[in-house]
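Quick one:
INPUT:
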């Protein structure tokens, strides 16, 4: 999976926020490749991201991502 697939997915659902694991599940890609590509998209400022606290997710703090409009 490449940056293009992650970008296309986020563009398709541009009004929603996703964690990396959700993107990996919905695109049938490995979690590791999604994380690497999200990092590249963040560096190129193509996606919005923020850190959130969550008690319902297995991790306390996670990043959520959304396509930059």
């Amino acid at each position: 999976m490449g940056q293009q697939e992650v970008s296309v997915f986020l563009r398709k659902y541009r009004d929603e926020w996703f964690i990396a694991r959700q993107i990996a599940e919905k695109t049938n890609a490995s979690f590791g490749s999604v994380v690497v590509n999200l990092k590249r998209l963040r560096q190129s400022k193509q996606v919005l991201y923020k850190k959130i606290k969550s008690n319902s997710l297995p991790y306390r703090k996670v990043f959520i991502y959304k396509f930059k409009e």
